[in-house]
Amino acid sequence: MHSKYFENIVIYLSVLLGCIILGILARMFAISVGADEFTANIVFVAVTLFGVLVYGLLSIFIKDLFTLIKQRFFPKEKQVTEPIKKSNDSARIDKIRTKQKQLIADQENNNKAIAIQYTQTVFAPYTSDKDLVLLSRNITSYAEKKRISEIQSVEVTELNSIDLYHFGWNIWNHFRTGNQLQMAAFLKRVFPSILGNVETETIKRHLKDDEQRGIIQIRKNLSEE
């Protein structure tokens, strides 16, 4: 900033000095043609001021002309600004999209954690530790919409078909993943010793039968006791 200020002072002093020199030459010329001292001084002042005025007008004219030529023949500045703006918009949108994806992933992970906690709580008294782990993995596979062939069977005791129906409905209602027929196929695959001989359509029709019967009952919200 100081350098620019000093540069302006030098320019203006140079212009003023040039105008004064022109004024002096004009005064000398006026005296040489017979003008008196007063008239010569008037000529000096007039020429000096006129020089300053001409410089100011030319500066404004040249600056406007330069700007006009630059906008007319070199419009790249606008073209450069526009991509920068678009780039900033894209970066902002990408940031929002990434944040939204993370929120969705966090919600999905939370839903899986709730379902697994519920499953382990319900089945812990009725199956082995090994099968409880397999059952938890099955719940994760169902939530992630993996192929039914990846589901592994488990063995349970003391539970009957209505308990498993209610369990299936609770899990389906929690995730709302796929339709109830897919949940029926999932139950048939996980609990073949109890549901292996039951038709998938039959399982689907009875998922919510007798809501308060059985060890496992219908739950509207798995996160609530």
UniProtKB/TrEMBL annotation:
It comes from the Bacteria. The chain crosses the membrane at residues 9-30, 42-62. Keywords: Membrane, Transmembrane, Transmembrane helix. This is Mobilization protein. It comes from Draconibacterium orientale. The lineage of its organism: Bacteria, Pseudomonadati, Bacteroidota, Bacteroidia, Marinilabiliales.
